[in-house]
Design goal:
Blueprint (H helix, E strand, L loop, with lengths): L1 H35 L11 E9 L6 H12 L3 E9 L11 H4 L9 H8 L23 E8 L9 H5 L9 H23 L6 E6 L2 E3 L17 E4 L11 E4 L4 H15 L3 E3 L6 E3 L6 H11 L4 E4 L6 E3 L4 H14 L26
Parallel strand pairs: 1-2, 1-4, 2-3, 6-10
Antiparallel strand pairs: 4-7, 5-11, 6-7, 8-9
């Protein structure tokens, strides 16, 4: 009888002990979960930067962009890069021989090669719909990447636009107008892809062959700017806006990425008439994509600030007079010797200089 009571008491003691242990574990788990799942305070979170790289895969220069712009920016911003690229036949519509002059830059030839190159950066997740780590510590780099093939169907051609392109018979104007449409269409696709990731505090559009002269990170002050919506380089504007590199505030993202093409497709041939219709003129009178971009953004009431070259230390890998002008002006303002140019743009001008070694 006594032994039965002893066993019952021991069993009751074990039950109580197990209940206390379970309660302790639950309490410890709740404390641990509430601690580890707690979000970083808003004041400690990085602002989000969405980078859109558009153009042709065969002309994509990657090493310079990664080391001079993307990776440095990822230390300051919660950064996502989307590559919206055409992987078809490489097209050059402005000058003959451009493809040969771009040799020496780090180009990729396929999306698999692009992915392999990016894998060299072990902490960069790759996906077509990559989620950004919102709780990442501001002390480390936060970067994710996605890419897509710009397969966009048949371009819409506005013939008055095509006939007014001012290359004086140097190039196929039909092909040039088609490529401009493809370019603006890739802006739309790129923004849709960025929207699947998150809302960003600042957007960037880069042309695929863009090069940076030195390390550059977008200034945080632009996030709180109220006077301007879009930042572009002042040089090589060709009577319009040069957006080979463009920084876009979220309040102008629809206008820049989406509505420029809509204006071209729906309103390029619109007429603006006097009150009594005694005279009418076309709403858009352009001779290149730069002049159309300026008129479209002006009609969309986007407030643009164009900055001097030292604020946009970048130029393309092609050898164009406009890019040389940007470079020339930048070097002059810094007081540097102008008797040198990078190998990709030097053929018509000056010998190369030693401090461009990292661009190759």
């Amino acid at each position: 009888m006594a032994s039965r009571r002893t066993r019952r008491a021991a069993k009751a003691k074990r039950i109580v002990t197990n209940c206390l242990l379970a309660a302790s574990l639950i309490l410890m788990w709740n404390v641990f979960f509430s601690t580890t799942s707690q979000k970083v305070p808003l004041e400690q979170q990085k602002p989000a930067l969405g980078i859109c790289v558009t153009g042709q895969l065969c002309r994509l220069e990657l090493k310079n962009k990664m080391e001079r712009f993307i990776l440095p920016s990822a230390k300051v911003y919660d950064t996502h890069v989307h590559f919206e690229l055409d992987d078809g036949t490489c097209k050059y519509t402005n000058y003959a021989g451009t493809e040969a002059e771009e040799k020496g830059l780090y180009h990729v030839n396929s999306f698999s090669e692009l992915g392999s190159y990016l894998m060299e950066y072990q902490d960069v997740p790759l996906s077509h719909k990559t989620k950004v780590d919102h709780q990442a510590s501001s002390s480390r780099r936060t970067l994710s990447v996605s890419f897509g093939n710009t397969s966009i169907g048949e371009p819409v051609i506005q013939y008055r636009y095509m006939y007014t392109l001012n290359k004086l018979g140097q190039v196929n104007e039909t092909l040039r107008a088609m490529n401009h449409w493809r370019q603006w269409k890739s802006y739309q696709k790129c923004m849709h892809s960025l929207d699947t990731v998150r809302n960003f505090d600042l957007y960037v559009r880069l042309r695929e062959d863009l090069l940076f002269y030195h390390t550059y990170v977008p200034p945080l002050v632009w996030l709180h700017q109220t006077e301007h919506d879009l930042w572009l380089p002042r040089c090589a504007s060709w009577q319009g806006f040069n957006d080979k590199i463009a920084f876009i505030h979220p309040r102008a993202r629809q206008e820049y990425f989406m509505q420029v093409l809509e204006m071209y497709e729906r309103h390029y041939d619109d007429l603006r008439c006097s009150p009594n219709h005694s005279s009418c003129r076309y709403l858009y009178v352009t001779n290149n994509p730069e002049s159309f971009l300026m008129q479209a953004l002006t009609n969309l009431k986007v407030r643009v600030q164009r900055l001097d070259p030292e604020n946009f230390p970048a130029f393309t890998g092609q050898h164009l007079h406009g890019d040389y002008f940007c470079f020339h002006q930048y070097r002059r303002q810094l007081g540097h010797d102008l008797d040198c140019l990078p190998a990709t743009v030097r053929k018509r001008f000056k010998p190369p200089c030693h401090d461009f070694a990292l661009l190759q």
